[in-house]
From TrEMBL:
<dbReference type="GO" id="GO:0019264">
    <property type="term" value="P:glycine biosynthetic process from serine"/>
</dbReference>
<dbReference type="InterPro" id="IPR015424">
    <property type="entry name" value="PyrdxlP-dep_Trfase"/>
</dbReference>
<feature type="binding site">
    <location>
        <position position="117"/>
    </location>
    <ligand>
        <name>(6S)-5,6,7,8-tetrahydrofolate</name>
    </ligand>
</feature>
<keyword id="KW-0808">Transferase</keyword>
<comment type="function">
    <text>Catalyzes the reversible interconversion of serine and glycine with tetrahydrofolate (THF) serving as the one-carbon carrier. This reaction serves as the major source of one-carbon groups required for the biosynthesis of purines, thymidylate, methionine, and other important biomolecules. Also exhibits THF-independent aldolase activity toward beta-hydroxyamino acids, producing glycine and aldehydes, via a retro-aldol mechanism. Thus, is able to catalyze the cleavage of L-allo-threonine.</text>
</comment>
<feature type="binding site">
    <location>
        <begin position="121"/>
        <end position="123"/>
    </location>
    <ligand>
        <name>(6S)-5,6,7,8-tetrahydrofolate</name>
    </ligand>
</feature>
<keyword id="KW-0028">Amino-acid biosynthesis</keyword>
<comment type="subunit">
    <text>Homodimer.</text>
</comment>
<keyword id="KW-0489">Methyltransferase</keyword>
<dbReference type="GO" id="GO:0042803">
    <property type="term" value="F:protein homodimerization activity"/>
</dbReference>
<protein>
    <recommendedName>
        <fullName>Serine hydroxymethyltransferase</fullName>
        <ecNumber>2.1.2.1</ecNumber>
    </recommendedName>
</protein>
<dbReference type="GO" id="GO:0004372">
    <property type="term" value="F:glycine hydroxymethyltransferase activity"/>
</dbReference>
<dbReference type="InterPro" id="IPR015422">
    <property type="entry name" value="PyrdxlP-dep_Trfase_small"/>
</dbReference>
<comment type="pathway">
    <text>One-carbon metabolism; tetrahydrofolate interconversion.</text>
</comment>
<feature type="binding site">
    <location>
        <position position="241"/>
    </location>
    <ligand>
        <name>(6S)-5,6,7,8-tetrahydrofolate</name>
    </ligand>
</feature>
<feature type="domain" description="Serine hydroxymethyltransferase-like">
    <location>
        <begin position="4"/>
        <end position="380"/>
    </location>
</feature>
<keyword id="KW-0554">One-carbon metabolism</keyword>
Length: 421
């Protein structure tokens, strides 16, 4: 870090300020986490310099001996951790992993059945502003209005009516478990491939806190960040018979040189995730999310789908008469970082939204437990109800920010030394 401070003080200041931001507030974004110093060390390594187009043993560049070792370790660890026949650790992101799954299993224009974005699906599940909606024929399934859980009858009806080439399950904002066996049965009946996009919950699978999609899916795509607590990046798992198609769909179809430093960091994270402590963490992530959801309910914020089985909760704020957008801004003033989120059948436009999404991975990594979750939910309640344009509201937000600062001091995210060494 000393070298960076000398070479580029402006960027050094940004990095320092970001450590400070992460350490002095509550990070409740469901897709974020705090990576270990070991993961950060691999990310900051000279493997970043290396070109290694191709796969281990079949590269288009010389000098790939160490790159090959790193990638083989990442692949073997991913296969072992998730009991998968094949793993590709090269996708640069979850989006890149999904693009490769489309490329491996479908042709442009094919019908693809996936969850609608306003009901919790991801952009890559058929949104019109994304490749998936522009180049394919998206068909969307939703959650039931009464239970706010996936409407499996609708999924089956749509699958039989449209005969999609591929069905995707897995979501960005869905708090309940997904019935992979039911999706498998529907895919078989309709003659479709089943892709599980496990980006959000693969860390919970690694820790045994939720069931694995691997035995049910043709292809599982995921990210290595989020609950899994690795570097930002993607991964794909599949059965051996699809291995070649998946590998070709990543390179050379949709990517060039892999990011070898990120692949090394993925290997580190996968090793960390195979340790017993990770199981404890993953189970605590779910307990904490449940405690957060219950705490928000006590503050008048209705948990969507009645609660959570995973690392995230969605809360409907209409009972408090505050929009998701205002809630996000008010929480920000109290040093609580979370996202506004559409709720199913949301009457508001997405930029305003009627809900918030909260996630427990980061605070769990910090060592917080259910007691702290109750305190956090109460702080969110105060923040959401405090209008910063009134004197009383502004002072309540300032008090909440002080309480947040005191709480996170007890559970430091990073010792500054270890991150900036
Ligand atoms: N799939 C799902 C379900 C996601 O929630 C996300 C990101 O949040 C992605 C894919 C994409 O991951 P990335 O942001 O790495 O492209």
């Amino acid at each position: 870090f000393a070298a960076l401070e000398t070479a580029d003080p402006e960027i050094a200041r940004v990095l320092l300020a970001e450590v400070e931001r992460q350490r002095t507030g509550l990070q409740l974004i469901a897709s974020e986490n705090f990576t270990s110093p070991a993961v950060l060390a691999a990310l900051g390594s000279t493997l970043a310099d290396k070109y290694a187009e191709g796969y281990p043993g079949e590269r288009y560049y010389g000098g790939c001996l160490e790159a090959d070792k790193a990638e083989r370790l990442a692949v073997e660890r991913a296969k072992e951790l998730f009991s998968a026949e094949h793993a590709n650790v090269q996708p640069h992101s979850g989006t890149a992993a999904n693009l490769a799954a489309y490329a491996a299993l479908t042709e442009p224009g094919d019908p693809v059945l996936a969850m609608e974005l306003p009901h919790g699906g991801h952009l890559t599940h058929g949104s019109r502003v994304n490749f998936s909606g522009k180049w394919f024929h998206p068909i969307g399934y939703r959650v039931r209005p009464d239970t706010e859980e996936i409407d499996y009858d609708e999924v089956r009806d749509l699958a039989l009516a449209h005969r999609p080439k591929m069905i995707i399950c897995g979501a960005t904002a869905y708090p309940r478990l997904i019935d992979f066996a039911r999706f498998r049965a529907i895919a078989d009946e309709a003659g479709a491939y089943l892709v599980v996009d496990a980006a959000h919950f693969m860390g919970l699978v690694a820790g045994g806190a939720v069931p694995s999609p691997v035995p049910h899916a043709d292809v599982v795509t995921c990210t290595s960040h989020k609950v899994l607590r690795g570097p930002r990046g993607g991964m794909i798992l599949c059965r051996a018979e699809l291995a070649q198609r998946i590998d070709k769909a990543v390179f050379p179809f949709s990517q060039g040189g892999p990011m070898m430093h990120v692949i090394a960091a993925k290997a580190v994270a996968l090793r960390e995730a195979s340790r017993p402590g990770f199981r404890t963490y993953a189970h605590q992530v779910v307990k904490n999310a449940r405690a957060l959801a219950a705490g928000l309910a006590a503050e008048g914020m209705r948990p969507v789908a009645g609660g959570t089985d995973t690392h995230l909760a969605l809360a409907d704020l209409r009972g408090l008469g505050v929009s998701g957008r205002d809630a996000e801004a008010r929480c920000d003033l109290a040093r609580i970082t979370l996202t506004k989120n559409a709720i199913p059948y949301d009457p508001e436009r997405p930029a305003v939204a009627s809900g918030i999404r909260v996630g427990s991975p980061s605070v769990t990594t910090q060592g917080m437990r259910e007691g702290e979750m109750r305190q956090i939910a109460a702080l969110i309640g105060v923040a959401v109800r405090s209008n910063p344009d009134t004197a009383g509201g502004a002072s309540r937000l300032a008090d909440a920010a002080d309480e947040v600062a005191a709480l996170v001091r007890r559970f430091p995210a990073y010792g500054r030394q270890e991150v900036l060494a």
